[in-house]
């Protein structure tokens, strides 16, 4: 099984064809159907790509990702292929164009192997909100893989592709990465174009990679990042060479005290984080506990603002323009109402209603405006921390993966994102990578956040920590 791009490259160097690498992944997907990670395998277009890439390798003009086999979360557009956001409302819909991030990978000869299950419209923390059934955690199939990019996380953990793309609005890359023992990275807001990503909450959404190494996450990010004429929020800031992993000298790291003191953190996760802190100190880094007493405000502010944006973004799914249309509806208004009632699942409806409510005339100031003010305070206070520190360190999640069907109350589910929503509210880059295995056999990760557009420093430092974690394991 080829888990990293370095392994793929070694295989190619010793004469393996890209077609046979692809065949191995296709066979593994077949063997692992019970995980429900893939909604569709793009076998024929992937084979067409493999033929071309093998030819290019022979001619010595292959791109930087030749042989990298990538799965796409089912909210990323790939021309001529279906995309559904794991929702019935997009039934039968095919992408008319390829999103920028995906196109940049293809331009470097990556192979797109299929689309991956997720929570409907990326709303969820367990991948139980998909219209196509839950995804299972590859390490223990009684457990959830996390969400919303659960299919992407599981596919990478189970070796069904070399890497996968996900989207992260409040933790949907980092939380499932932590639950599945993979690396998950959310870039700075604006670092990667959102063109071709089905919008959930546009001022939070970012595309990012799932991989089995920090090296691969840096490589994919370097290729996807940068300015894009199709997304005005994509930054014009130059893209550094993330794959150089320059990381000189001791660093200053802030640990958010409240995260480790918060109720509900698993004692083994807490102990593992404290061990990492000790290791960092021994390696000559400065680690200090800082107080950031806003933890209780983050999840509420996140849900006010993201539901508001979602209620607007999802208004385009009306049974007329796209996908599913109710068969029993008569007239325009009834077509809208019935198509949306039948096409959206319960969590998506809950959020559209909550978002419509917080934006409604009488409540706008009490909820939406207040949410924006909280967001600004969080941004300012986070900037203040980064005046004195290079990185912020927290656990990625309070617990390891939980059982399917175990978290029934929506608020408890929302609290799964307690450590991850911070970076989306403030737009900072953040990575999760595995640091240990719980006594219950499940992996868990650690999260590092960096100042805006400091991805290069973040990858460099994370890789240093990853190397230590590997050698000490
Ligand atoms: N779990 C969060 C939510 O349900 C985050 C989702 C995401 O990042 N897409 O909104």
Molecular structure report:
The chain is of the alpha/beta class. The chain folds into two domains: 5-242, Alpha-Beta Complex (Amidase signature (AS) enzymes), CATH 3.90.1300.10; 252-298 and 366-472, Amidase signature (AS) domain (Amidase signature (AS) enzymes, Alpha-Beta Complex), CATH 3.90.1300.10. Helices cover 41% and strands 13% of the residues. The protein contains 16 helices and eleven strands. It has helices at residues 5-13, 18-31, 43-59, 100-107, 150-157, 174-180, 214-224, 257-261, 267-282, 295-313, 331-343, 346-359, 364-388, 410-414, 421-426, 455-472; strands at 38-41, 69-73, 111-116, 163-168, 183-186, 206-211, 252-256, 286-290, 391-395, 430-437, 443-449. It has an eleven-stranded mixed beta sheet with strand order 1-3-2-4-6-5-10-11-9-7-8, sandwiched between helices. Helix 2 (18-31) packs antiparallel against helix 3 (43-59). The chain is globular and about 70 Å long. Glutamine binds next to strand 4.
